[in-house]
Design a protein that fits this description.
- This protein has one domain.
- The chain has 18 helices and no strands.
- The protein starts with 6 loop residues before the first helix and ends with a helix.
- It is mainly α.
């Protein structure tokens, strides 16, 4: 008889691979920022615009895959492979549809860029269009890949996405080094080169993800074994309804959050190109911390869904607490290291002394934000893993629209704190979110029960 691994060990096993995967996914954009920063200061400012729009668009549509985590994780815990495969197929199909919509909207997005940042110079706007014109067209590959990675992680496989991330980042660094800075007889293309290299990387990553999902032995797969019955139309309808019931509030949450975030960026843009460039440097650093927290969030969402599916609801709070404390510890440690090395780190992204000075003087707020962000990310993921995406939507709306915008404006303008004021506004958002989510999880104990009763296998699979 073998002992089951303890909750912290389960969290660390999943999170360790997920953190590295998240880091590698973020590293795609970190490399873009670093290379563009050495290409020209204008190119770094261009990433402030293009990176924000790209991240916002991807984040909104990717919100749907919270449902992928909740459903596949629950089916994995219940050892119902047919339902897990069904949920995977539907999620990948939705990913393709979302990507096609965004790709077709590329001309509209590019036309609206001047309204997002009316104070931006023509050079910044031109470079942002060059980058987005390439990456948004690759959206179908982005979302199919995201759906596939979510399915693998929800099933408990965080190692395969890590291996895929290693391969794709190797390709990305090589491509962008040549295309952005020039080499091998290819002229330096700046933002357009970064967009081409990133788009090619997305295509390559999706091909590897689909290959991984073709394995019949995988918990999350696109294929059923020959001995397993194909899902009926009733099961397809049932699973689609469940995915929409969980996924739509998650998408609404992302829309509200990104709306607030775009207004947040507009506040930064009103402060001029120099502040935009310094803020982009700090975003490049914080993306490492944010996606590290996302690694613990992946573990929390997957384990919460699996424990509910396995009827081990008493373990739900234990794994959530373990993931939260681990996330706080890890992000605080990263924040301390980054703060201690703030000068050299900021200099990696820019050679302009004024930009470096602006970034360095804001790093104390960067450090302050990390534990709150780490806790809030995990607690929100735990609620999503249980299917309670509507609850997270309410908390996110309050934080992103009310707290972040009001505090950012007050700190940046009436109090004249500049970029540190901007970051104090976002930190206030994380503090409020963490407090509310902590209450909802550990005091109201919302994740101890399923969002709704699971349909019985008989009713879900009966042909009509």
């Amino acid at each position: 008889m073998t002992d089951k691994p303890g909750p912290l060990r389960e969290v660390l096993r999943l999170a360790s691979y997920a953190i590295l995967t998240s880091f590698l996914q973020t590293f795609v954009f970190v490399v873009d920022r670093a290379l563009l920063g050495h290409h020209s200061n204008a190119a770094l400012g261009q990433m402030q615009l293009s990176g924000t729009v790209e991240w916002s668009a991807f984040a909104v549509f990717s919100g749907f895959f919270a449902a992928t985590f909740a459903r596949i994780g629950r089916h994995t815990g219940a050892r119902d492979r047919v339902r897990a495969v069904t949920a995977t197929r539907i999620s990948v199909a939705f990913g393709l549809a979302f990507g096609l919509v965004l790709a077709l909207a590329t001309p509209l997005v590019l036309a609206l860029l001047p309204r997002l940042a009316p104070s931006a110079s023509p050079v910044l706007l031109e470079g942002a269009r060059d980058y987005l014109g390439m990456t948004l067209l690759a959206s179908p590959f982005v979302f199919v890949g995201t759906a596939g990675v979510s399915a693998l992680q929800a099933g408990g496989d965080t190692r395969t996405p890590l291996l895929i991330g290693v391969l794709t980042n190797s390709v990305h660094i090589a491509l962008n080094w040549v295309l952005v800075l020039g080499g091998l007889g290819i002229p330096a293309m700046g933002s357009r080169g970064a967009g081409i290299g990133t788009a090619v990387t997305f295509v390559f990553e999706t091909a590897l993800v689909l290959l991984a999902l073709s394995r019949v032995s995988s918990r999350a797969s696109l294929r059923l074994a020959s001995s397993e019955e194909a899902p009926t139309r009733a099961l397809l309808r049932s699973e689609t309804r469940e995915l929409f019931a969980i996924g739509l509030p998650a998408v609404a949450e992302k829309i509200v959050y990104q709306t607030g975030f775009l207004a947040f960026v507009a506040i930064i843009a009103a402060m001029g190109d120099r502040v935009m460039e310094a803020n982009q440097v700090l975003i490049g650093l914080e993306s490492i911390c944010f996606l590290s927290a996302d690694g613990f969030a992946v573990a929390a969402a997957a384990l919460v869904a699996q424990k509910i599916g396995a009827k081990e609801e008493g373990m739900v709070y234990t794994v959530t607490r373990s993931a939260m404390l681990a996330s706080i510890t890890w992000l605080t440690a990263i924040g301390v290291v980054f703060f201690a090395l703030k000068g050299p780190l900021v200099s990696i992204f820019s050679r302009d002394p004024d930009t470096v000075a602006e970034g360095v003087r804001t790093m104390w707020v960067f450090l302050l934000a990390q534990p709150f962000m780490g806790a809030a990310q995990v607690l929100a993921a735990a609620l999503r893993g249980s299917g309670r995406t509507g609850t997270v939507f309410g908390v996110s709306a309050l934080g992103a629209i009310v707290v972040r915008l009001s505090c950012t404006y007050a700190f940046a303008f009436p109090l004249h704190l500049g970029l540190p004021g901007v970051w104090l506004g976002s930190t206030a958002d994380w503090v409020v979110r963490m407090a509310l989510l902590f209450f909802l999880v550990f005091q109201a104990r919302l994740i101890g029960t399923a969002r709704r009763p699971e349909p019985s296998p008989k009713s879900a699979s009966t042909p009509t």
